[in-house]
Design a protein that fits this description.
The complex is a heterotrimer. By secondary structure, chain A is mostly helical. Helices cover 66% and strands 2% of the residues of chain A. In chain A, a hairpin with a 2-residue loop joins strand 1 and strand 2 (115-118). In chain A, helix 1 (2-39) packs parallel to helix 10 (304-329), helix 5 packs antiparallel against helix 7 (211-235) and helix 7 packs antiparallel against helix 11 (337-366). In chain C, 23% of the residues lie in helices and 14% in strands. Chain C is built from 5 helices and 5 strands. The longest helix of chain C is centred in the first third of the chain and has 19 residues, at 18-36.
Chain lengths: 367, 167, 176
């Protein structure tokens, strides 16, 4: 029985990280390029389809071609770098991003021949904390890249990234405290189950329970959601806050000296962090895998079709959130560095603290 | 299986801890320390102390060491020079080690292994997050408040000290 | 003299940026949907659609040598273009025109005139500097080759691209 559990876990790791997450990373790059093109009245990559034919398939072959290109490019290590750390840095960015997907519930459970398989790799009681802890390690990859490259642009990028990530980790952590208070739970699976029967945190319009407190709770939840989302942008170094790699000032920031697959790991690590961030936001605020309207939430034994529907529901929500990331990136200009720090320390930190207090007051008043 | 994981992570923390003092380059030392912390956190998690393990990574691995590293990099510390070998520090180190071993032997002599078997937590019991939280806000409420005030004082002190230079 | 720029006073609504952010996001969203429905896309799908007939008069394509109306090569191998060429793409080997030739009074002509198109930057300096108006930038822009040697345009190729150019200065013929 133990070995079966181990095998199931291994299969889940392989399927969820390498067959769900990695293709999603690759195709979010494609989506990024296509959406950016559409926003700028261009076409975007639309030709790389099936080789030796005229079928472009809207450029769906592009990620595969990009990957092949990265693998076959010359892997150049400049002479002035600290080689050991230079090689370690890309791995340190990619690995934490992939590790965090261990606690994200991708679906409820798959009922295969009476054997229920929960679609989460590790059902920890400290889900969000685990994600924050592992994600906070990914800063080392960037710092190390900046330091080991031994170039001023990389170094400045690394330094910027460090201070930015430390600053926004605080508001990120504080922003989910009210959410955790509302759920009274740190287990992501339980959080989603709660939302499945009581309505999503941002749309609490179905399920049992009195409606008025839920609607009043929407105020702190909305504030939390806003702070969480913006901090997520800063944590993943995405565009309004992409100062660690801002091209106009730092060439390419911390990965200036990198080429080939090592560069690709930085590039894809950013997208992986973005996808995990979207997954966490969806899980906490948008009901995770639960279907809209609370469909099927009263079934104790979930049939196979419901499990599959839950899985795809989660993926669709996640894709929607990734599209939001992309949309923001191609709409908003870059912040100045002092503005970024001011926003993090002066506004978000205080608002998040006040929000905790507000939530506590509401919870005490209504329960 | 679990034993194997224990040995992997124990080795990681021991090797990391050794790396801190053996390495000449301060950045390498800092990274060894991070490796030691991560190994330690993994050991905590193996003992089902999820919160402690995660906090270990979050606070020490993710925040404190980042600041350490940040400062080391900004100051661009050179690698340590080879120091002159002196008998004084070596003798002191050996003495300290001996004292530690004696203490360990005394403690282990009093401890009879296997006499007290700890009960496993029943499945579905309150999570360790909940229990630690309850303890902190009931039994240890006063110390928590004192530590909070202490941190506040430190914060204000830092602000005062760093602002003074501007005038 | 220093000019004091009056900064506009921002209201609270403007200071928190949220309205402008929303406005900007709506604009990009509008562009996205219009482009998704196939309107407003300005991209030209290159190998299928080309811009050739719309190329402006001043378009700077591949440089080429021209002959005049009497089929004389205009180039007198003064090597000014070779001298001015920023990427040093031009190589000229002058030779004397034998005295029995019809154009013996011109004295020099290029024996070898090569432009390395893998170096050419289409700057047009050669055209500007030429005292004989012998070299012109044409509208050919898709210069390709499978080897470096193929990318070097020799004299025959240059005259083939350039062709005959009538009018302009007539220093060496009877028309003057």
């Amino acid at each position: 029985m133990d070995w079966i559990n181990l095998a199931v876990t291994l299969i889940k790791i392989v399927v969820l990280t390498f067959m769900v997450l990695l293709p999603m990373i690759a195709y979010s790059v494609w989506a990024e390029r296509r959406v950016a093109a559409k926003i700028q009245n261009r076409v975007g990559p639309n030709r790389t389809g099936i080789p030796f034919t005229k079928w472009g398939l809207a450029g769906l072959g592009q990620p595969i071609a990009d990957g092949l290109k990265f693998i076959f490019k010359e892997d150049f290590t400049p002479a002035h770098v600290r080689t050991g750390f230079f090689w370690l840095a890309p791995a340190l960015t990619m690995v934490p991003a992939l590790m965090t997907c261990a606690v994200i519930p991708f679906g409820s459970e798959l009922n295969i021949a009476g054997y229920k398989i929960p679609l989460v790799i590790a059902n920890l009681n400290v889900g969000p904390l685990f994600i924050f802890a592992i994600a906070s390690l990914s800063v080392y990859g960037i710092v190390l890249a900046g330091w080991a490259s031994n170039s001023k642009y990389s170094f400045l990028g690394g330094v910027r990234s460090t201070s930015q990530m430390i600053s926004y980790e605080i508001s990120l952590g504080l922003s989910i405290v009210p959410i955790v208070m509302i759920f009274g739970e740190l287990n992501l699976t339980e959080i989603v189950k709660w939302q499945d029967s009581n309505g999503w945190l941002l749309l609490p319009f179905w399920g049992e329970g009195p409606l008025l407190p839920k609607v009043i709770l929407l105020v702190p939840v909305l504030i939390s959601f806003l702070i969480f989302t913006v901090s997520m942008f800063a944590e993943t170094n995405r565009l309004p806050f992409d100062l660690p790699e801002c091209e106009t000032e730092l060439v390419a920031g911390y990965h200036t000296e990198y080429s080939s697959m090592k560069f690709a790991l930085f590039f894809l690590g950013e997208y992986a962090a973005m996808i995990i961030g979207s997954g966490l936001a969806v899980t906490l605020f948008l009901g995770g895998w639960s279907l809209p309207g609370g469909i099927g939430s009263d079934l104790v034994d979930k049939p196979l079709w419901l499990g599959i529907a839950h899985f795809f529901c989660f993926l669709i929500k996640m894709i929607g959130f990734i599209l939001l990331f992309i949309w923001v990136r191609w709409s908003l200009p870059r912040f100045r560095y002092d503005q970024l720090m001011r926003l993090g320390w002066v506004f978000f930190f205080e608002i998040a603290l006040a929000n905790v207090l507000l939530t506590a007051l509401i919870l005490i008043y209504f329960k | 299986m679990l034993d194997l994981l224990f040995y992997i992570f124990a080795t990681l923390s021991v090797v990391g801890a050794l790396g801190v003092i053996v390495n000449k380059n301060p950045v390498t030392s800092a990274f060894s320390l991070i490796a030691a912390f991560i190994g330690l956190a993994a050991l905590f998690i193996q003992l089902d102390a999820y919160l402690v393990g995660i906090i270990q990574i979050l606070v020490y691995g993710g925040a404190v060491m980042v600041l350490f590293l940040f400062i080391i990099m900004l100051m661009d510390l050179p690698s340590e020079e080879r120091r002159k070998f002196g008998w004084g520090p070596v003798a002191g180190g050996i003495l300290l080690g001996c004292v530690f071993v004696v203490q360990l032997v005394r403690v282990l002599a009093d401890y009879s292994a296997g006499s007290r078997v700890m009960q496993d937590l029943p499945v579905g019991a309150a999570s360790d997050v909940e229990q630690i939280g309850k303890l902190m806000f009931t039994q240890y409420y006063f110390p928590v408040q004192v530590v909070g005030v202490l941190l506040l004082v430190a914060t204000i002190g830092v602000v005062v000290l760093s602002k003074k230079e501007l005038d | 003299m220093a000019i004091v720029v009056k900064r506009p006073k921002l209201t609270f609504g403007e200071k928190i940026y949220l309205s402008s952010i929303a406005k900007g996001m709506l604009i990009t969203m509008g562009h996205f949907w219009r482009a998704l429905l196939g309107k407003g896309t300005v991209t030209m799908q290159y190998p299928e659609e080309k811009w050739d007939e719309n190329l402006p008069e001043y378009y700077r394509g591949a440089p080429a040598l021209v002959t005049d109306e009497q089929d004389r090569e205009r180039c007198v191998a003064c090597q000014l273009c070779e001298f001015i060429c920023p990427p040093r793409a031009i190589t000229i080997l002058p030779e004397e025109i034998p005295s029995e030739d019809e154009w013996a009074k011109v004295e020099k002509r290029p024996r070898k005139f090569e432009i390395d198109m893998s170096r050419c930057i289409y700057c047009g300096f050669c055209q500007e500097v030429c005292p004989e108006q012998a070299i012109f930038l044409r509208k050919d822009y898709a210069i390709t080759g499978t080897s470096r040697a193929e990318m070097v345009h020799d004299k025959d190729k240059l005259y083939e691209i350039g062709g005959v150019r009538e009018g302009l200065v007539n220093k060496w013929n009877e028309l003057k």
